[in-house]
Amino acid sequence: MNGSIALMICMFLFAGTAFAGKLEPVGPVPVPSANPQTPEKIELGKKLFFDRRLSGDGTMSCSTCHDPAQGYSDGLAISLSYPTTRNWRNSPTLVNVGFQKFLFHDGRAHTLEEQALFPMMSAFEMNQNLDFAEEEIRSVPEYVESFRKVFGGEVTRERMAMAISAFQRTLVSVDSPLDRFLQGEKKALTAEARKGYDIFMGKGKCSECHDGVNLADDRFYALNVPENAEQEKDPRVAATRRFVAKVSHYEDYQNLAEDPGRFLVTRDRTDWKAFRTPTLREIAKTGPYMHNGIFETLEQVIDFFDQGGGKGNSVLKPLKLSAAEKKALVTFMIEALSGKEVPFRYPKLP
Ligand code: HEC
Ligand code: HEC
């Protein structure tokens, strides 16, 4: 009995570490049993995702900042927000978001269902009152009918979140050269991308953090990414930061002069300015990069890692990559991590 428990614990530990540093091809997206995927639910979620009724002044939908034409991100260093206010972070891609264990740059949400209502309520995003949003959606007969068909009941905020989540789980990177390569197709990568892959896995040490399906390890690191000076100058960004800290019950929110990252969630000093390792899937489309969009190009990102990260960080060491090695890394990320173009069908909104 004890022996078999010990064996099970060993197997568990092994399962937890066996894949560290290993890349995996995209498989089926995990779906929570409480919110099964159905085609009607996905279609309803897609409509809501594009519907500006979800914002307080009717100017914004989720797709404003997560645009299918821009890799479900927005092409800005930091996102737009409700008029007169300012966001504080870069909009992450939603491609393969169904595989993420932590949501947001600081990991403060865990499930899509839990996350979906944040941007609607958020004063610096869609600034909507959820009671009002429910009434607005209830005023549209086509939506009322869809909710009845999909959920067997009326419009509620929870069901809105469930439908939007079901739609988001369909956003996946399909059949990229990396996937084909990992499945054994040796010629799926060009010679240059293959060289980049070897550096990614070896000398560049990238896969120490960028591993698994999403090339992301679900961990948080304080790399001391430079501040975005232009953003820091904007008092509206500071207001957003104080607001998020305040609603996160951080007592000293008034004196917060920079984005504290994961610290806001854990209050652990070692998490000060630590951010989640982001997915690298479809990375060619999702710049600018980092939580604050400080780098416009992948070349700049690689220079950052090559120098051993930002001043005073204790995570990274200089890599001393040659110009040719850096170029191969960029080629790997652009070529190998871009999936097939899937034509996007925009929904017809009621
Ligand atoms: C005004 C721009 C904006 C709008 C509108 C917006 N988002 Fe976002 N979204 C962001 C930003 C910025 C973040 C990162 C915030 C952070 O890390 O604190 C984010 C994060 C997310 C994440 C987490 C992704 C990840 O990998 O961590 C999901 C999921 C998401 N948004 C879905 C939605 C949905 C669904 C809607 C509509 C209900 C929406 N967003 C509306 C800007 C926006
Ligand atoms: C110690 C863990 C770690 C290592 C090693 C590492 N990264 Fe990262 N990477 C991160 C984290 C954390 C971020 C996000 C930082 C932020 O948002 O401020 C990131 C961000 C990125 C981004 C920007 C993604 C985006 O959407 O904003 C790219 C590209 C990237 N890394 C590529 C690489 C490459 C190439 C290497 C190897 C040369 C590498 N990383 C090594 C942890 C790591």
In short:
By secondary structure, the chain is mostly helical. It is built from 15 helices and two strands. It folds into two domains: 39-168, Cytochrome Bc1 Complex, Chain D, domain 2 (Orthogonal Bundle); 177-336, Cytochrome c-like domain (Cytochrome Bc1 Complex, Chain D, domain 2).
Structural notes for this entry:
The chain has two domains: 39-168, Cytochrome c-like domain (Cytochrome Bc1 Complex, Chain D, domain 2); 177-336, Cytochrome Bc1 Complex, Chain D, domain 2 (Orthogonal Bundle), CATH 1.10.760.10. 39% of the residues lie in helices and 1% in strands. It contains 15 helices and two strands. Strands 1-2 form a two-stranded antiparallel sheet. The longest helix has 16 residues, at 2-17. It starts with a helix and ends in a 14-residue tail after the last helix. It binds heme C (2 copies). One heme C binds at residues 105, 204-206, 208-210, 221, 223, 225, 275, 277-278, 280, 283, 286, 289-291, 298, 301-302, 305, 315-316, 329. Residues 54, 60, 62, 64-66, 79-81, 87, 89, 91-92, 94, 97, 100, 103-105, 112, 115-116, 119-120, 125-126, 164 line the site of one heme C (HEC).
